[in-house]
Amino acid sequence: MSSVVVINQRARSAEQKALRRQAVLEAAETYFLEVGYEAFSMAQLAKNAGVVKGTLYLYFKTREELFLTLYEQSLIRWSQDFIGYLSESMTTKAYAQALYRTALADGTFLPLLIRLEHVIEHNVEIPRLIRSKRVFIDQVEAVAKPTSTSLKLNKAQAREVVRTMGVLLIGATRADQGPALDNEALPEEVQSLIASFSSKPLFVKNAVRIIESIRAEAASNS
């Protein structure tokens, strides 16, 4: 059963409104982790948060604008977590493994990232989309700086790595969207085929190739 976060007192000051908005977001993330994207209902969120449905639209004009805000929060949270795992002179494989591990550890980040460009961003107003893209730019810069140190790349190369890793992450994790077959008795060759398309080896192997390619290209141009 969804937990109820009661925030039904009327918000008057700017501070009270900000606190209520954050309370709605916290209730929304809890609910999202319970039911996922497709089953997420604004009506049910209102019940969980202890407000009338119309109150939600005072803070978020559409369901997708709410999701966009949750995505931004999870992006910042993931960036900080990932940066904490970076160290000087990491191998490309260790870097890729840390990125994959931290991205999947956040139950909100990846499900929203996968739907970001094809669904969520199509249902928000342009000014709101622009603000979101600026959040993304800021986080790319935040991650690129320690990436440059860890992988011994210049700033432009590090930015390219970070941007490309996001695209690769989306593509690789789509391989995990098929039916769950963990408890099924499958022929060995079928098990081997499924394992070869698992997102982790796909991501790590191709991430290493991309990073090394960016490094090699820079070396050939120097």
Oligomer: single chain
Mean pLDDT: 87
- CATH domain class of the largest domain: Mainly Alpha
Overall number of strands: 0
Overview of the molecule:
By secondary structure, this protein is mostly helical. It has two domains: about 1-60, Arc Repressor Mutant, subunit A (Orthogonal Bundle), CATH 1.10.10; about 60-220, Orthogonal Bundle (Tetracycline Repressor, domain 2), CATH 1.10.357. About 70% of the residues lie in helices and about 0% in strands. The protein has ten helices and no strands. The chain has helices spanning about 15-35, 40-50, 55-60, 65-85, 90-105, 110-115, 125-150, 155-175, 190-195, 200-220. α4 (about 65-85) runs parallel beside α7 (about 125-150), α5 crosses α10 (about 200-220) and α8 (about 155-175) runs antiparallel to α10 (about 200-220). The radius of gyration is 20 Å and the shape is globular.
Which key features would you list for this structure?
Tetracycline Repressor, domain 2; 10 helices; Arc Repressor Mutant, subunit A; 222 residues; 71% helix; 2 domains; mainly alpha
Topology:
Elements: H1 14-35, H2 42-49, H3 53-59, H4 63-85, H5 92-105, H6 109-115, H7 126-151, H8 155-173, H9 188-196, H10 199-221
In short:
With 222 residues, the chain is mainly alpha-helical. The chain contains ten helices and no strands. Helix content is 71%, strand content 0%.
